[in-house]
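Quick one: HAD-IIIA family hydrolase from Marseilla massiliensis, structure tokens please.
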Amino acid sequence: MINYDLSKIRAVIFDVDGVLSAETIPLHPSGEPMRTVNIKDGYAIQFAQKQGLRIAIMTGGTTESVRLRYEHLGVEDIFMGCSVKIKTYDEFIKRYGLKDDEVIYAGDDIPDYEVMCRCGCPCCPSDACPDIKSISKYISRHAGGYGFGRDIIEQVLRSQDKWLNDSKAFGW
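--- reply ---
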């Protein structure tokens, strides 16, 4: 369980590679990186937004299929090609009037480090690098791409009594 007051969480920001997709990325013959996605993560992401939780994607990658996947799930805040994520994070929290302690950031590697040091509740998958594990308030039992996103979102929504509490839960 996440050892944090999840009732105050208003936004969850996810990195993609190694977080919402597995850390090994097959390459298309054209050289384009291809990613895996987890269906349970997808369900949780679209449901969380219906329940008023702001979900954002913040990735250094630029693959269009990533944008399409999360747009299809209703994510409005998709930040691609983030070379310095803390700058994008600052713009995001300012845009929505968020405080650091109202944000979970889910990351797995060094590019996520600065944001994870700032946000209220840094979380990581079980296969995150040691530096990220050392600053995380929660290390999931799930590896990146294997239900980690669902784990985080479900805990937040359950703590806010928004998990399976109305008919929105039973559809896409």
